[in-house]
Structures are given as C-alpha cells and as structure tokens.
C-alpha cells in the first residue's frame, strides 16, 4: 500500500516543517543560481566576444557576484524629485516577487516517502499549475510599468510602455503554444505533465521518454522565443534597450532597488527555463529510460536542463542584435500568433483523429 | 533566415572555445610597445655629462610648452642645461623635441606607466630624465 500524501490535515507539524525546508532549499538554489547566472553570463558573453569577462575577483572572477552585491548595497539610494514615492518603492518588489513565486509549482523530483508519508518534491502541486504560471508571468509586467511610470522620467516611461505592448503581443502567443501541450496532457498540473512525459515515446519506443518536444517541436520553438520576449531578454530587450532608452524602466533606480531589478531579470530567466524544461523537456525525468540515467536524482536533471536553456539564452544574447520595435510587433502578431493558432488547430485535429 | 541565425550562433560558439580570447591581462602581462613608441623622455648622457647643449630648440618647437631649459656655461666653456624640466602633465608626446634636437640629446623610451599621486611628481627634472 502506498503511504498517504502528506497534507496540512493529516499531520500539520510535519507538513509545515517539510514545507519550510522545501521553501528554503528552493529559494537558496534559485538565489545562488541568480547570483552565478550573472557571473556565467558575463563570462560566456565575454568569451564569445573574444574577451575574458571578470577575472580579478577571486579565481576567474568567481567572487564577482558578491563584490557586485556589496557594491550595490553601499550605493546611494536615490529617489528622483517628483517621483511617485509609493509606486517607485513598490515596483522593484512587484517585479521580483512574481518571478520567485512561480518557482513554487515546478516539480523537481519524484515523490519520496518520509515519516510514513508520501512527500512530493515540489513546493505546491496546484491542479491549475500552468494557469498560475501564466498569471504570475502577467503580473510581473506591472512592476516594469509601475517603475516606468513612477520614475518621472521619459526614458523610464517609454520603457514601461514598450514593456506593456510587448507583453500583450507575446503573452498571447505563449499561452496558445501551451494550450497545445494541454491538449496532449489533458491536465494543468505540472506534476501530471511531467509524469505523462516519462511514458514511452508515442507508446512504442521504450527507452526514449515521451517528451512533448518530440510531439510539439513547433510549440517548443515558439515558447522559447515568446518566453524570451516575455522576460525581456535580448534580442527582445526593448524595455531596457540601453542604446535607445539609456536603461529603460530602471534608468532612475540605484542601489538595492536596481539590484532587485537585476535579480528579477535573472530569476525570470530561471523561471522561463524551468517552465520550458517542465512543459517540453520532461521536467526532472531522465533523457533516456535506462538504469544509469534514471538512478541520477531528478533535481540534477532539472537543473541541467534549466542551465542548458539559460546557456542558450546567453548564447543568443551574445550573438543577435536587438530587433527593431516594429519588427518585434510584426513578429509577435503576424508570425508567432498565427503559427501558435495553427499549431493548436493541427494538434486538436490529430488528437481527435487518434481517439 | 534560419541559415544566417545558425551561422551567427556557430561563430559565437567557436569563440567560446578556449584559445580565442584576445585579452591581455594587463598588470600581470604587459605588451612590448613598438620600436617607434613615444613614451617617457630620456636625456642621453655622454661620458661625463648630458649631451644636451642647451640650444633652446626643444622648448621652442614644443607645442605644449612643457619643456623648461636654462642654459649655463661650465668651466670648459661648454654650454650645458643648468635646468632641464619637462612637465609631464602638459606633454602631449608628439616627439617634436626629439626631431628638433641637433645633437640627439633627447629621445623617447617605451615607458608608458606614468600615473602618479602628486602633481609635483609629474615634473621630470634633469636628474630623473637622465636615468
């Protein structure tokens, strides 16, 4: 008999304890990843541009994130004259919190049995997990818009306005690509989606798992591109656009508030990579159903997938220039949206025919 | 379009591989300046004194007016610079003084690390220039 699933009703003490442990561990991993993502990005982009990146703080600049953090702590905390104080203070938090909260529904391993209970390796298994992710992805944009509005600066405002337009154009396409995944999985729970992706590929090939990237390659590509646009990464970093808007929505921010924007950018990157890995690349499951691979714990595979995707994002940043604003809109509405819709229609047809 | 994307990505990935960096780790590794590099000045000595005959051609030609010369005569009746100073904060390292010198008494070295903490340290006297 499988043990009961641990919940607040059957053992409140253990539940809260385990939950705290999970929260702290996940938060620590995300924050460390954020810190070292900045270092990695500088290193990767540096080498891709035949430079070295940070070299002087610690071995190959390994202490650079801490040096940056300490430096930002001691910077003057500045609020521009006639800025709206409350939104100005609120904006950096409003952008970081949704980014961090989203990680709560990412499963990072199979259930484990502890204290006679079954414990999922996931902070919270919402049965509407993907909707939750989309909702918080949508909330994150408020921080940017608010930052742009509250700063009382034209550059910041332009950055904020750009962010809204970009968000609307790409959120639609991203949502539609995920719909194709739901049509196959018939569940919105990320845990369920990962479990389904561990089955045999199309029910025939026993050693390759049924990752949705094999069934939905177009959706995967679309989701990566729209994801990049949603988190404002190069080549879609229009709201920041150093060359045109100074620094866009965070032009007027300094000190730890700027650090929060910076952290949010990388946290968003981790989140989008984790979502892509969970929806299309089998989450924490091993890439091949063979004993050596399945023996490695799930979180290693998940982190490996997340970091590979993040490396890919950095690679893109080192390679491609920023798209022009009209190109961005054209790509969003005239290419991404029709492709995503077509993908939904085709997937629907195939699902109906196969039934 | 996608071919170009792939090409761009492959180029950046190639650069990522070890051995493609062009950075010189400056304070630990230093490049050798070219032979014609115009760095810090040096007054060329002869056997017992500097070659300079204090003819005033270098302060005359100097566009930045950074050279101060005061001539005097020694016991043998030769002209020599009693004072020879270069204000390194004004010098533009054009090398005209070297070109103008009729006796090749001044030349420019490869020394380029001239940063300092005090304004006075930028005044290079005859003693310092003769080194």
What portion of the residues of chain A fall into strands of 2 or more residues? 5-15%
- Domain module count of chain A: 1
Structural class of chain A: mainly alpha
Distance between the termini of chain B: 63 Å
Kindly state the percentage of residues in helix of chain B: 10-25%
The average pLDDT score of chain B comes to 88
**Which percent range describes the beta-strand content of chain B?**
15-25%
Shape category of chain B: elongated
Q: Low-confidence parts of chain A lasting 5 or more residues at pLDDT below 50?
A: none
Largest interface: A-B, 13 and 13 residues
Determine the structural class of chain B based on helices, strands and strand pairing: alpha+beta
Termini separation of chain A (Å)? 33 Å
The appropriate CATH architecture of chain B is 2-Layer Sandwich
Oligomer: heterodimer
CATH secondary-structure class of chain B: Alpha Beta
Order of helices and strands of chain A: HHHEEHHHEEHHHHHHH
Number of strands of chain A: 4
CA radius of gyration of chain B is 23 Å
Profile the largest sheet of chain A: 2 strands, antiparallel
Keywords:
heterodimer; A: 355 residues; mainly alpha; two-stranded antiparallel sheet; 4 strands; 5% strand; B: 131 residues; alpha+beta; Alpha-Beta Plaits; 5 strands
Question: What do you see in this structure?
Answer:
The complex is a heterodimer of chains A (355) and B (131). Chain A is mainly α and 355 residues long. Helix content of chain A is 65%, strand content 5%. In chain A, helix 3 (85-101) runs parallel beside helix 10, helix 4 (129-150) runs antiparallel to helix 5 (154-185) and helix 5 runs antiparallel to helix 8 (217-230). Chain A is globular. The model of chain A has no long low-confidence stretch (mean pLDDT 83). Chain B has a single domain (33-130), classed as Alpha-Beta Plaits (2-Layer Sandwich). In chain B, a hairpin with a 5-residue loop joins strand 2 (67-73) and strand 3. At the A-B interface, helix 1 and helix 12 of A face helix 1 of B.
């Amino acid at each position: 008999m499988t043990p009961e699933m641990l919940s607040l009703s059957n053992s409140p003490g253990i539940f809260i304890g385990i939950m705290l442990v999970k929260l702290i561990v996940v938060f620590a991993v995300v924050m460390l990843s954020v810190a070292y993502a900045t270092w990695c990005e500088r290193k990767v982009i540096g080498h891709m541009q035949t430079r070295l990146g940070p070299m002087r703080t610690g071995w190959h600049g390994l202490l650079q994130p801490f040096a940056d953090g300490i430096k930002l702590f001691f910077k003057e905390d500045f609020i521009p004259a006639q800025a709206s104080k409350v939104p100005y203070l609120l904006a950096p938090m409003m952008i970081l919190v949704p980014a961090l909260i989203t990680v709560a529904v990412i499963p990072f391993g199979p259930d484990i049995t502890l204290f006679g209970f079954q414990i999922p390796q996931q902070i919270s298994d919402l049965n509407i997990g993907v909707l939750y992710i989309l909702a918080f992805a949508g909330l994150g944009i408020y921080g940017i818009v608010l930052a742009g509005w509250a700063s009382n600066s034209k550059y910041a405002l332009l950055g904020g306005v750009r962010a809204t337009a970009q968000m609307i154009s790409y959120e639609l396409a991203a949502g539609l690509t995920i719909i194709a995944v739901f049509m196959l999985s018939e569940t919105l729970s990320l845990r369920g989606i990962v479990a389904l992706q561990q089955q045999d590929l199309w029910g025939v090939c026993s050693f390759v798992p049924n990752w949705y990237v094999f069934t939905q390659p177009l959706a995967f590509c679309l989701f990566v591109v729209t994801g990049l646009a949603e988190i404002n990464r190069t080549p879609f970093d229009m709201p920041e656009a150093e060359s045109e808007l100074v620094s866009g929505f965070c032009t007027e921010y300094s000190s730890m508030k700027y650090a929060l924007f910076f952290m949010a950018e990388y946290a968003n990157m981790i989140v989008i990579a984790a979502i892509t890995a969970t929806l299309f690349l089998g989450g924490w499951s091993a890439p091949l159903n063979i004993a050596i691979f399945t023996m490695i714990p799930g979180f290693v595979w998940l982190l490996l997938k997340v970091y590979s995707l993040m490396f890919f994002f950095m690679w893109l940043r080192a390679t491609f220039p920023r798209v022009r604003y009209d190109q961005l809109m054209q790509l969003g509405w005239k290419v991404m949206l029709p492709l995503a819709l077509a993908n939904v229609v085709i997937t629907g047809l195939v699902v109906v025919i196969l039934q | 379009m996608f071919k170009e994307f792939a090409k761009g990505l492959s180029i950046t990935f190639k650069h990522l591989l070890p051995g493609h960096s062009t950075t010189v780790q400056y304070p630990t590794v230093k490049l050798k300046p070219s032979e014609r590099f115009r760095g810090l000045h040096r007054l060329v000595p002869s056997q017992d004194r500097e070659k300079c005959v204090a003819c005033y051609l270098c302060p005359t030609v100097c566009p930045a007016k950074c050279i101060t010369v005061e001539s005097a005569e020694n016991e043998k009746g030769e002209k020599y610079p009693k004072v020879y100073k270069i204000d390194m904060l004004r010098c533009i390292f054009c090398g005209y003084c070297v070109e103008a010198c009729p006796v090749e008494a001044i030349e420019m070295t490869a020394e380029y690390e001239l940063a300092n903490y005090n304004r006075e340290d930028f005044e290079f006297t005859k003693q310092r220039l003769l080194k």
